[in-house]
Amino acid sequence: MSFRIHAIPSEILTGVRDSGRDVSGHPVPVVRAGGGEPLRCCLRDAAEGEELILFGYEPALPASPYREIGAVFAHATACPSAPAEGYPAEWRGRKQVLRAYDQRGWIHPSTRVHDGSDPEAEIAAILADPDVVQIHSRNVAYGCFMFAITRD
Predict the structure, then answer these.
(1) Helix extents (H) in the chain
(2) How far is Cα 79 from Cα 148, in angstroms, rounded to an integer?
(3) Which of 33, 83, 88, 146 minimizes the number of CB atoms within 10 Å of its CB?
């Protein structure tokens, strides 16, 4: 089964960078990377010293009890966008939660934790259920949104 990876949309990143405000209207701090921060703009880990922003992001879901805002890192200035095909190379082998959602924006029972060793197989198994319309990859320790996945 083919699927598409979705980083945070460029128009949202541009809005946050230009306004200096996140989805809740809070000021967006600029920070220097310590190294290893997961970047939701280009879907790789930050190198030490890179200039980043840390802001509240609300992934696109229909209005539902499961819609939430969480902290994410991105480059402070525009960067090359993430490839839309294939699992992010730097994040292979990283344990992640694959949170499945139905068309109402409710969490679907296909949600699971995977060890990162074969993410394509895990994603295909979840998307095999026709009731799943999208998946959010989320950080295991912090629960933060990493990227979205949809059928191609």
Answers:
(1) 10-19, 119-127
(2) 19
(3) 83
**Tokens 């060793």 belong to which residue?**
117
pLDDT at 84: 64
- Summarize the chain as % helix, strand, coil (round to 5): 15, 30, 55
Q: What residues have CB less than 8 Å from 113, skipping those under 6 apart?
A: 95, 96, 97, 98, 140
Q: Which two tokens stand for residue 105?
A: 């924006």
DSSP 8-state code for residue 21: B
Domain ranges of the chain: 8-75, 89-151
Say if pTM beats, i.e. exceeds, 0.85.
yes
**Mean pLDDT in residue range 50-67:** 96
pLDDT the model gives residue 86: 86
